[in-house]
Amino acid sequence: METAAKPSNTHIGRKISRIRELRGIKQEHLASELGVSQQTVSRMEQAETIEDDVLEKVAGILGVSSEAIKNYSDEAVIYNIPNNYEGSNNHGAQSNYGNYGTFYFNPIEKIVELYDEKVALLERLLQAEKEKNELLKAGK
User: Fold this and answer.
1) With helix as H, strand as E and coil as C, how does 35-75 read?
2) From CA 48, how far away is CA 134, in angstroms rounded?
């Protein structure tokens, strides 16, 4: 009796790509940290399997465990977002270790953190422009 092949959800390269995107990390940065080219990272993200030692390095750079990458699924992220916000009535009913894999970061918190970093950067740029204008005025 033959059974139909089930679609595989083990494409590690795609999982790395999705986690990298959620973390706001560019391929160039990941490549730099790994000591390889951006094209190598692109090929790695297209590969279905990756050597364990490379996966460990990538996981460290992304700030997650290799198990989190192996168990990652978009469905789990979507499912966990509405159940893990402050004020949720689901206090403790959904653990981060459910059937959907293990997650060591909250994408919403990461977005807020990146936004705060962007605001701080813009404030520094504005201050630098003000100082530059003052120097130009003083030089006249």
Assistant:
1) CCCHHHHHHHHHCCCCCHHHHHHHHHHHCCCHHHHHHCCHH
2) 56
Six token digits for residue 61: 């750079």
Contact 31, 70 (CB under 8 A): no
Comparing C-alpha atoms, which of 8, 9, 30 is closest to residue 19?
30
Reported confidence tier of residue 128, pLDDT bands at 50, 70, 90: very high
Indicate the SS3 state at residue 91.
coil
Question: What's the half-sphere exposure (Cβ side, CA atoms, 13 Å) at 62?
Answer: 28
Residue 119 has pLDDT above 80, yes or no: yes
The 8-class DSSP code of residue 78 comes to H
Mean pLDDT, range 38-59, rounded to an integer: 90
pTM over 0.90: no
